[in-house]
Amino acid sequence: MSRTPRIVVLAGGVGGSRFALGVRGALHARGIDNTAESLTVVVNTGDDLWLSGVRLQPDIDSIVYALAGVNDTARGWGREGDSERVNAELQAWGTGWPWFTLGDLDLGTHLARTDWLREGLTPTDVLERMQRRWPLGARLLPMTDAEVDTIVTVRAEDGALTRRMHFQEWWTRHRATLEPVRFDNPGIEVATPAPGVIAAIEDADAVLIAPSNPVVSIGPILAVPGIRDALRQTAAPVVGVSPIIGGRVVRGMADVCLAAIGVETSAAAVAEHYGARAAGGVLDTWLVGEEDAAVAPDVEGLGIRSVVTPLWMTDAETSASLAERALSTAGV
Ligand code: GDP
Ligand code: CA
To answer: What percentage of the chain reaches a pLDDT higher than 70?
Structure first.
């Protein structure tokens, strides 16, 4: 391909940021310097919430911090070298959530974002402004500018009653131990994709679905009206990367989410959940781990091409080689 390839990645936080770093690295390795013109990352905003008067966008911040190189790689979230003085003060005042830590540097981001939102900027504008401070080597777009926070309905202790809570409360406070009955993004049915999202998918040479949580990261992106149709109609191949390795989730609790929607924790079952593009789904190709080579024929049986390759993103190199495999599989 002579001109710069146009790549779109759909992503959540942890798996999404590692994979986005990998794609940027793979493009660099091909000698493409202007990766920001080549790579568009459409990010889940279902995890977003208002807390202590500020707007948090956890998946966006995970990707921004990782691409800017200011993330805490040991802890896996937030800013490197952060402190929690403000958080301690907020707790002393009894505001916020006692189980949800906000770092001081992280709060700086949230305050800036909230300030801009109050000025009337959209989340897309805010993200564009953040990228002026930190050139990320990618164009980041929220999936939508609408507030469509993920709400979890859990079974109450007596088994009969149900109650609803914000996804972050369920995930962070309860560590996903309360049995989820369903996940909703109220208002998403009337939300529109953020400006640029549909055009990026339509004009792409390849669309890559990051190994992110299929239910609460990729699920909300696909639920924004218009995005699923754009994936089905684009001329670009759609290549997904399994977040399940060896029949297990890595770094997270996605298995609990999958169980709630009746999907088994296996690379083949997630592929079936996304579905073959030829059969009304969104996938042409599915990358499965070497540990899951045995399920590759099941994936092929769904009408989805299956490629067996190492899926562990342990560092920049392994992430870039996984991304390179996804790109070459897409014919880019
Ligand atoms: P979150 O928004 O922070 O929950 O992160 P994502 O939704 O982007 O990603 C979570 C998913 O990433 C988990 O379900 C993991 O299975 C997957 N994941 C994490 N690390 C890796 C990895 O190294 N390789 C692969 N293939 N998947 C991973
Ligand atoms: Ca997330």
So the answer is: 99
